Amino acid sequence: MDDIFLNGNFIAKSEASISIMDRGFLFGDGVYELIPVYNKKPFLINKHLARLKNSLNMIGMQEIDNIKEDILKFINRSNETNYHIYLHITRGEQSYRNHVYPNDIKPTIMIMSEKYPCFNEIQITAGFKATVQNDFRWQKSNIKSISLLGNVLLKKHASENNCYESLLIKNDLLTEGSASNVFIVKDKTVYTPKLNKDLLPGVTRNFLIEILDTKNISVKETDITLNNLLNSDEIWCSSSTNPVVPIIKVDNSIIGKGKVGEYSLLAFKEAQEFITSY
Ligand code: PLP
What we know:
single chain; D-amino Acid Aminotransferase, Chain A, domain 1; 6-stranded antiparallel beta sheet; 28% helix
């Protein structure tokens, strides 16, 4: 579908425009969500909207009225079956550029559809490479902010080095990937960094913890050091676009046996099964 939703109206993407005085454009002042749509149904929408509410709250913005209804309206109008909803909310337009925002500013709300490439089973079973990078981003990475310059540079660095992801280390601890959360497996136990201000509370992270629990695999949310990461038996990254992406090599370190491990495959298959029957 080429139409986007902008401030209450459906409009052709090619005709949609916003003011150059929008704070999203000038300051990267806003938040976003990316919600997969499977079989014409938004996946885990309430979890995404709960995170959106928290992100808005953390940047001093009000909840957006009727946002769920608008998303459902958007999905109803679309001819597509499987895609991603990109929801972008900025603090709005101001008549002059000023760091200080007025309290009564009207937000800019945009919904569009995107189709991100999802890896197939052959790619997943082959595994991916990653690189370790210093997490130089700001100290509020738990906000799903549209200011993504740090993430953009880190993801580009990974891509230029034929890696799927940059795995980020702050004060010797793993935080997350540049656009994903990270799980590791050591001695048949699955670990993921515990939630704090340095990582996004991934909806997929939570979804995987829950589906693994139904298989009697409890995920330990804890501190993971760089040494733990490099000496793990398995690593995978999680995100809404690709729920489980196994990593078999990190820079020059081979992970485990250098092949995709059983827990990564199990997580991938369980996620796929759940999504297919959604
Ligand atoms: N961490 C970062 C920095 C991300 O950008 C993303 C997804 O875009 C995630 C984690 C995973 O979040 P989710 O599973 O909600 O897509």
